[in-house]
Write a structure and sequence with these properties.
Shape of chain A: globular
Oligomer: homodimer
Order of helices and strands of chain A: HHHHHHHHHH
Number of strands of chain A: 0
Strand content of chain A: under 5%
Largest interface: A-B, 47 and 47 residues
Radius of gyration of chain A: 18 Å
Helix content of chain A: over 70%
Chain lengths: 202, 202
DNA sequence: TCACTTAGTTATCGTCTGATTACTTAATTC
DNA sequence: GAATTAAGTAATCAGACGATAACTAAGTGA
């Protein structure tokens, strides 16, 4: 396989593993296993574990902004821009670990390298909302706040309690703008995959 | 010193260290150094590093709910309850690492022990808002969303760029309800303390 | 004062982890 | 078809980390 394709494969695997366990909680061996390559190869392709995580963050940000710009350009639908971008954001959850890897980066702002990258990435998103999407400061703030709540809900695996706890049910239906069914479906397949992995002794 | 007092001292130190580096990024030796005790003693008092982190989360949640209930009881001021609790939340930022340790717990929802504790803690806060503070579902959702954005801003050390970037300036003034001056002051003293620690070679 | 508890420390160990080195195998080029 | 490059793997290492064990010093009560 071409090195470039293998690199993207490793990045995808790393995104889900980092999303689950965070930067420090993830080992390069876990990423390698998820990507189907040897541990030294992961290190060799990206240099260091830190550079691998920075590449994951960059990829996540690229995907995020691409999805937002696509939602901005897609003027055919009569849906207002705020909702279109909101739906685009939730659509990113289909790429498992993407939003959570970003979140892990956000809470490591103290780190010299990771913190700087995460900060710049966040500011870039804000600039998009304000200067490309035409959001007001208040709209931008509310959009980002809702996004952070969604990330937290995903991180907490709140969807697992959707049917078990009426308060969770209520909170989730208010947190996810009309896309709660998609989130529940994603969570279900994810749980099934996890069960399969556990079953095969991985 | 009494073991109970020493335990609280270690918990405070652990809160700031976990807040800075997360669960996996923190070593028991770092916590011990910050608390002024030996590394094995930290382990002996709490059993394991995981139990120490769970104790940090529990303490953070206790402080948070206590602050909220105090804001609820304090009916003398003519300030509406939403704002009172909002200000109480920002006041928690004075306890360095408290909100960030919670945030680190939130994004580790996959972990069997930590995830369960973080999930239950979050639900407890939602229940308080809905059934004690009398918030509507929408008010609760918006409050939590704003809280998660604030946590993210703190995690990203966004306040460092307050004077350097007009977009950051705008974002922060909209994210922090009128308490931005306090946040900037906290960030400044924190940077000074960090510089002192670096200066003494710690 | 002697036995006992409380509050710690020093020394050490086994395991895990990121990284390095050296080797292999399959294309591709000349 | 020999030489070179690309795409990997197996073996291994040095450092760090959580945890354990063994020891010590300072109260404290009978």
């Amino acid at each position: 396989m071409r090195a470039e394709d293998r690199r993207e494969l490793i990045l995808q695997a790393a995104t889900t593993v980092f999303g689950d366990h965070g930067y420090d909680g993830t080992t390069t061996a876990q990423v390698a296993r998820a990507a189907g390559v040897s541990q030294p190869y992961v290190v060799r392709v990206f240099g260091t574990k830190e550079k691998l995580f920075l590449a994951v963050l960059q990829r996540a940000l690229d995907h995020l902004l691409a999805a937002f710009r696509a939602a901005l350009t897609d003027t055919v639908s009569g849906v207002p821009i705020q909702r279109r971008i909101g739906l685009a954001y939730i659509g990113l959850a289909a790429d498992r670990g993407l939003l959570l890897s970003l979140m892990h980066g956000f809470v490591l702002g103290r780190d010299p390298e990771i913190g700087a990258a995460a900060r710049e990435g966040f500011i870039l998103v804000y600039r998009f909302l304000r200067h490309e999407a035409g959001f007001s400061p208040d709209e931008s703030q509310q959009f980002l706040a809702g996004g952070m709540l969604i990330n937290t809900m995903i991180g907490l695996r709140m969807t697992d309690d959707f049917d078990r706890d009426p308060d969770v049910h209520e909170l989730l239906t208010h947190a996810f703008p009309e896309k709660i069914d998609i989130m529940l479906e994603l969570a279900k397949t994810e749980r099934r995959e996890a069960a399969e992995r556990a079953g095969t002794g991985a």
